[in-house]
Write a structure and sequence with these properties.
about 220 residues, alpha/beta, 6-stranded parallel beta sheet, Rossmann fold, single chain, about 45% helix, 2 domains, DNA polymerase, domain 1, two-stranded antiparallel sheet, 10 helices, about 15% strand
Length: about 220
């Protein structure tokens, strides 16, 4: 088995603790549209999905309403939520170690580029990532493998030397379908039992353990 030379990370729930701000922004969105606010647990379960699909599913919205809700959400999140988001404990330090050890890193996220760029800049980790793909690239959404395949091609690395890390089944299925090894982290939006249904290669409770995993 090839050594791990590159890691592709999910963002929300894997690197950044965004759930509180996502739920708050979804709540504001449904309230503004005069729609019932879904249960918090239901909103959290959709984190990682393409936003338009998540809002449509949660609110039972029409196509037109879904588009309007998505635009409202993005506006509110950029105004309020984006500057309140922090990375999970140990993430910044671990990314720095991985970079120093020569691991190439990228992000595959369902959020839009402006909010991603703002959050990683605010948290001082922009220079850890060689590249990223976001919803702004209009690729097939998770769990389809197109995001990962695009990054592999862009970086010139093979699937067998790449690890995909995420906190939801969407991430793990995406990585598996792309032919990569996958690592589920249990502190995010899907619990260990749910993650296990996607068949991750590895499962970690602590992000910092990635350093040892990347050395295998």
């Amino acid at each position: 088995m090839a050594s791990i030379t590159s890691i592709i990370f999910d963002f929300d729930g894997t690197l950044a603790d965004t759930a509180t701000e996502i739920v708050a922004t979804m709540t504001s969105t449904f309230q503004a549209m005069g729609k019932p606010v879904p249960a918090e647990a239901d909103m959290r379960r959709t984190i990682g999905m393409k936003l338009l699909f998540a809002l449509k599913q949660l609110g039972g919205l029409s196509d037109e309403e879904s588009i309007a809700a998505t635009e409202y959400y993005k506006k509110v999140f950029l105004e309020r939520g984006v500057n309140r988001v922090s990375l999970f404990p140990g993430v910044a330090e671990t990314l720095a170690i991985l970079k120093a050890e020569g691991i190439r890193m990228a992000i595959a996220t369902s959020r839009n580029a402006p909010s991603l760029e703002t959050i990683i800049a605010n948290n001082g980790v922009s220079d850890c990532f060689e590249t990223y793909v976001t919803n702004s690239d209009h690729l097939a959404p998770k769990p389809e493998p197109e995001m990962v395949l695009t990054l592999l091609d862009r970086m010139g690395v093979s699937a067998d030397e790449t690890l995909v890390v995420g906190d939801t089944t969407y991430d793990i299925e995406m990585g598996n379908r792309a032919g990569c090894r996958t690592c589920a982290v249990t502190y995010g939006n899907h619990d260990r039992a749910t993650l296990a249904t996607a068949g991750p290669t590895f499962t970690l409770d602590d992000f910092r353990d990635l350093v040892k995993l990347a050395q295998k």
